[in-house]
Amino acid sequence: MKTRKLGNSDLMVSAIGLGCMGLSHGYGPAADKNAAIALIRKAVDLGVTLFDTAEAYGASNEEIVGEALAPYRDKVIIATKFGFKDGDSTKGQDSRPPRIRAVAEASLKRLKTDRIDLFYQHRVDPNVPMEDVAGAVKDLIAEGKVKHFGLSEAGVTSIRRAHAVQPVTALQSEYSLWWREPETEILPTLDELGIGFVPFSPLGKGFLTGTIDENTSFSKDDFRNIVPRFSPEARKANQSLVDLLGAIAAGKQATQAQVAIAWLLSQKPWIVPIPGTTKLQRLEENLGAASIELSTEDLSQIEDALSKINVEGDRYPAHLAARAGR
Ligand SMILES: NC(=O)c1ccc[n+]([C@@H]2O[C@H](COP(=O)([O-])OP(=O)(O)OC[C@H]3O[C@@H](n4cnc5c(N)ncnc54)[C@H](OP(=O)(O)O)[C@@H]3O)[C@@H](O)[C@H]2O)c1
Predict the structure, then answer these.
(1) Does 188 reside within a domain?
(2) Which residue range is the domain that position 281 belongs to?
(3) Is residue 326 part of a domain?
(4) Domain CATH code at residue 58
(5) Looking at ligand 1, which atom is closest to the CA of residue 120?
(6) Which of 93, 124, 151, 203, when mutated, tests ligand 1's pocket best, judged by the most ligand atoms within 8 Å of its CB?
(7) Strands (DSSP E) along 194-257, which ranges?
(8) Ligand 1 center to 107 CA (angstroms)
(9) Domain count across the chain
(10) I want to staple 134 with a disulfide (CB 3.0 to 4.6 A). Which of 60, 166, 192, 306 is the partner?
């Protein structure tokens, strides 16, 4: 597995990380615990060194990540996140400094480790000045409990304010072939400040892989049921994007998922996508994207085709969209 450096930091990670959320949160029933641990360990075997979890994914998510990675602790980078009231993303943000400290202590216990390698604020809290958030993380870094500071779905003003107090190592926000907004302001700002970028939902929450269509039904606790972009009408309308990916993938003896990830990798050398899966075979498939080279011609073909496609449906329902990009 190739490695990449997140921005100007000294943090080296595998070019593709593993998003662990879906192992127990967001996409229906949790995977069997032993299977989840086996999947994380398989990722280590295959060269993955960046693992992503969060307080908000439920206690068991961090516990599984911690247990799976304990034998490899010094070889891997564990990223987790703070910032929701009571750790519940449905309750709104809470990044008050004492709460940040309490989350760090609790995450360290659940992860069974003595340091969090990368600690992200999950969403900007409109009620807590960013300087106070960055200051709280700076204190944790000084104590050795946290190694690097990250933000998620923060806007450029918040990124600059945070970075002025405590250098930000990485921004984790949605970015993929069907959500390219970060290209406008975010990527140039990260480039200027030397901050790495970790795209979440790089496979469009599964849609870009070609395995979901208008007839797919999700289990009742699957988050995609409330995402406008996943309404049956939107899925039908957005099928042309999947078809485009299929045509490009076929020409490269690759899969749609691999092209979607390889496209992200080709955008900047400091981009590290974190696709999530519960399946061993898909894990191997997704990591295979690190060896797929998209030529300038491939990239302009994709660009040209994308410019003719109008992606239907918002990526979040309105009440959740409001808290991103602040
Ligand atoms: N910071 C944030 O606010 C935020 C928000 C969302 C996610 N994240 C992080 O980003 C990670 C990845 O994002 P994500 O899970 O939302 O979306 P994703 O990686 O774009 O897609 C995951 C979905 O795609 C399916 N999938 C994965 N590989 C596949 C393949 N090769 N072929 C067909 N289907 C495939 C998975 O199903 P199977 O399990 O059935 O394979 C799963 O339903 C998460 O695990 C989490 O760590 C962060």
Answers:
(1) yes
(2) 3-321
(3) no
(4) 3.20.20.100
(5) 1
(6) 203
(7) 196-200
(8) 22
(9) 1
(10) 166
Using one digit for the tens of pLDDT, what is the confidence trace for 149-190? 999 999 999 999 999 999 999 999 999 999 999 999 999 999
In the chain, helix, strand, coil percent, each to 5?
A: 50, 15, 35
How far apart, in whole angstroms, are the C-alpha atoms of residue 81 and residue 224?
Answer: 21
Between the CA of 26 and the centroid of ligand 1 the distance, in Å, is 9
Give the position, in ligand 1's atom list, of the atom nearest the Cα of 21.
45
Say if CB 244 and CB 156 are below 8 A apart. Answer: no
Catalytic residue among 57, 72, 175, 316: 57
274 within domain boundaries: yes
**Closest protein CA for atom 4 of ligand 1:** 200
Whether 276 is in the pocket of ligand 1, judged by its Cβ within 6 Å, is: yes
Give yes or no: 57 in active site: yes
Reported as a single tens digit per residue, the pLDDT across 200-231 is 999 999 999 999 999 999 999 999 999 999 99
pLDDT attached to residue 229: 95
Query: Is the pLDDT confidence value at 198 over 90?
Result: yes
Residue 168 resides in a domain: yes
User: What confidence tens digit (pLDDT) does each residue in 13-46 have?
Assistant: 999 999 999 999 999 889 999 999 999 999 999 9
